[in-house]
Design brief:
single chain; three-stranded antiparallel β-sheet; alpha+beta; globular; five-stranded antiparallel β-sheet
């Protein structure tokens, strides 16, 4: 759907607040979806994208401020024509609730008929299996869709329909496609050239030669990672820590983890249609892993500060922190009596996608491993992080889970943070999800680079050689939203917003979050500040 197709504009989500209370509007307002148009990291990166390729920022604005994009205000591509409501709306409620199923499979008859008709009129050539890059089909009119049949109709301006696309379908792939619409991302500026065996820049101001799957350089593949996992099956995975109020503890879809079921009314005055007894209400928290950006949005130095949303943003930080603490399990295998002192640390991915997943630049997880002698003195450390400088020490045993990209010009490959120009993956040792197979992940954006995982392996092990006097080991898994190196890059190249972001970093350096801790043998007596989740 292009801006000229829109009959009814996407409404300001503030209008939804009157009826849809804490589990809906309040939870959404504290999420990074809600704040996508205000995110200072995004605005600094947008400046770089526009420098690297004219008008590239239009592609970024499409996801971060869809109300502005569909309103025709994404030009100039620096976002200067956007309205305040566009920025505050972020990924607005109606973006999802007016989205048309690209492959209509079920729901109220009126919804299926409308979806078929709209798809045929607006995007008849879009491949049925193409999911991603915000290539969305929206209802041009303000007809809203959701997971529940509602009778009598709520006081919305036009129709309200139940559709399998928005959940409760029983088919995890049908439900998750709505998330995959944005969480599979290609770079339309770079196409695969079979002759040179690399991705190369397309002609500017021209469409890519092909938008078929695999033809464009993959930026992120969260949906495909999930699609090829054990979670994307009817059986799903037993993971009650993610399942919220679901009685069986089984998670299958993106929504099962990131919109956990809770109990309560979906709207004010909703007595007969609520989820007070069966815990079926999807909480709109969309918790991910970002605990840093919400804190930056409360700093009045940022031009798009959201201090009025402090209660919701602080709740969002806690939700993200809790999600991180469920995402991985760390174990340590260490024999203090062995002649050769070694510790084997295993990190198990408990999520339905790679660990970590999503936008790769600056995002990382690492192991901090420490060994102590009989007197409790530290005699070994790998993965030391200096909180004062934001520097992660690059020791020989350091294990960092991340993806690193670069530019391949045919002669050399250079690591960079220029994501619009990057056409090569230099490293991707991120841990795959349950159900991983070498064959299934053997495609651009999915296959490991610089690492090897066997069929069924959703964990990674690292062996640490320790001093002879080591008698105990502590392993801590950390997550960081943005590395110092990435922020320094944005600070120097991201214009005024990059400079402000750098100043914010100087005071709050994307504090690493503890995901899990393991010890062998137990050291709680030595270190009471460490506790298992």
């Amino acid at each position: 759907t292009q801006p000229e197709h829109m009959i009814d504009a996407i409404v300001d989500p503030i209008g939804c607040q009157g009826c849809h209370t804490a589990p809906i509007y309040g939870a959404w307002r504290g999420s990074m979806k809600s704040q996508a148009g205000r995110d200072p990291i995004f605005w600094a990166a947008l400046q770089v994208a526009n420098q690297d390729m004219e008008n590239a920022g239009d592609f970024c604005l499409r996801c971060h401020t869809p109300r502005g994009w569909y309103g025709g205000r994404s030009h100039p591509a620096d976002g200067s024509a956007l309205e305040a409501t566009d920025l505050g709306a972020g990924v607005a409620c109606e973006l999802c609730h007016r989205m048309v199923d690209p492959l209509p499979t079920g729901g109220e008859a009126a919804a299926v008929t409308a979806d078929v008709t709209i798809r045929a009129a607006i995007s008849p050539t879009l491949p049925a299996d193409h999911i991603g890059s915000a290539m969305l089909i929206l209802d041009p009119e303000d007809n809203r869709r959701g997971p529940f049949a509602i009778t009598p109709a709520p006081p919305h301006p036009k129709a309200t329909w139940r559709t399998d696309f928005l959940g409760q379908a029983g088919n995890p792939v049908t439900e998750a496609r709505v998330c995959g619409s944005c969480h599979n991302l290609d770079n339309p500026a770079l196409s695969w050239n079979p002759a040179t065996q690399r991705y190369e820049k397309n002609a500017e101001n021209q469409p890519a030669p092909s938008f078929a799957k695999g033809e464009l350089f993959p930026i992120e593949r969260t949906f495909d990672e999930w699609l090829k996992s054990d979670y994307a099956t009817t059986a799903g995975v037993y993971a009650p820590q993610f399942a919220g109020s679901k009685p069986d503890g089984i998670v299958r879809t993106c929504q099962d983890c990131h919109m956990p079921r809770t109990t309560g009314p979906a709207a004010a005055g909703d007595v007969d249609r609520d989820c007070r007894t069966n815990g079926c209400l999807p909480e709109h928290s969309f918790a991910g892993a970002n605990t840093w950006a919400p804190q930056l949005l409360l700093d009045p130095r940022w031009r798009l500060a959201a201090t009025q949303d402090a209660v919701h943003l602080n709740a969002g930080v806690l939700s993200a922190r809790m999600m991180l603490q469920k995402a991985a399990t760390v174990t340590v295998d260490f024999d203090p009596g062995a002649a050769t002192k070694q510790a084997v640390v295993r990190v198990t991915n408990e999520t339905g996608h790679k660990l970590p997943t999503g936008y790769p630049e600056g995002r990382r997880i690492w192991l901090n491993v420490r060994a102590y002698d009989a007197a409790g003195r530290m005699v070994y450390e790998s993965g030391a992080y200096d909180a004062q400088t934001g520097v992660l020490a690059a020791d020989p045993a350091l294990k960092v889970y991340e993806a690193k990209l670069g530019i391949d010009d045919g002669a050399t490959v250079t690591e960079t943070f220029h994501f619009v120009l990057n056409n090569s993956v230099l490293k991707d040792n991120r841990i795959p999800p349950r159900g991983y197979t070498v064959a299934g992940f053997d495609e651009p954006g999915l296959r490991p680079v610089g690492a090897s995982y066997s069929d069924g392996q959703h964990w990674d092990e690292t062996t640490y050689d320790l001093p002879d006097d080591a008698v105990s080991v502590v392993a801590i898994l950390y997550y960081q939203t943005a590395s110092k190196e990435y922020i320094d890059f944005l600070r120097s190249r991201g214009g005024a917003d990059g400079a402000t972001l750098g100043a914010l970093w100087d005071d709050l350096k994307s504090p690493p979050e503890i995901m899990d801790v393991a010890m062998e043998p137990t050291l709680y007596g030595y270190f009471p500040w460490i506790s298992r989740r």
